[in-house]
Amino acid sequence: MNDSVYNIAVAGATGAVGSVMLKLLEERDFPAASVRPLASAGSAGKTVTFRGEELEVQELTSESFAGIDIALFSAGAARSREFAPAAVEAGAVVIDNSSAFRQEPSVPLVVPEVNPEDLKWHEGIIANPNCSTIQMVVALKPIYDAVGIERIVVTTFQAVSGTGNAAIEELFRQSEAVLKSEEPAALVYPYQIAFNCLPHIESFHDNGYTNEEVKMVKETRKIFVDPLIGITATCVRVPVFTGHSEAVNIRTSREISVEEARRLMLAAPGVLLIDDPEALRYPMPVEATGHDEVLVGRIRRDESAENSLNLWVVSDNVRKGAATNALQIAELLVAEGLLT
Ligand code: 3JN
What we know:
Layout: E1 6-11, H1 16-27, E2 32-39, E3 47-50, E4 53-56, E5 58-59, E6 70-73, H2 77-89, E7 93-96, E8 125-127, H3 131-147, E9 149-158, H4 165-179, H5 211-223, E10 230-237, E11 244-252, H6 258-267, E12 271-273, H7 285-288, E13 294-301, E14 308-315, H8 319-335
Helix pairs in contact: 1-8, 3-8
Ligand 3JN is lined by residues 77, 98-99, 130-131, 158, 162-163, 201, 215, 317.
């Protein structure tokens, strides 16, 4: 094998994130010698297109990884738990988009703009954080490094593509039904999502928080290596196809002006500052869709508290929140010779 090209497997290749992973391998000109699309038995035999070629989707099994250098997983946590160890056993490095391994002490949880150094200690599996965590930590990292952050209060407005293809179809169908004065059928979410908001993402814990909210807390602490940072989240599903938005309130350790926060954002990797209220310029999901940056705007002082700021943070949850972040990790592994 030519040392500079790699055999890639994509587990979950027909899903909302997996299909974008394939597109990005092509778009970013990743040095792929071959791509092996994998999915559950139900999707095996379908075809996906890569560099103009039709590739047949194979069933994901423990035997799927012979000769694979990098296995991108986005097939759900249960399949990651079942098959990622076999991929590592076969010699691949796994970049896993699920929650299966995110809290394992031996698994780095990486956002390339925030903690690329953690890739160095991987033992075969690297975890991609939850989409809501990724965009928040990219936006907060420059402030965290400059003045410290003591507490984060975040409310998310999450697009249905975070749930997958079935939820995208559900929002389409329900919107049509409502506009025709028909009864919208709720199959994916417990209630109608079209023209509605659900303060409920994943299952509820005994303390009243949802699993998505708990993920944001634990993942932020691990990525910032700051087990004591105060953080509380409210996660809301909204009738948007793509692009998660977040209202973020932070209390910093030292004072920082709005102007300085804006300057930091302008210099921050992966951040695009869109913050000109007079010109009605602020980040929105329709503007973030199809892009890889985290859009930040509405930066303003929280006048009710010391050393506190409000920010509005928007990003394409399928790209930077999942597929792009995984591809950036793969690119870093290649650049830094960390594929063994
Ligand atoms: O709902 C969203 O917007 C993001 C969803 C993420 C998600 C959904 C089901 C299972 C995850 C995740 O990435 O944390 C998982 C999971 O892997 O547990």
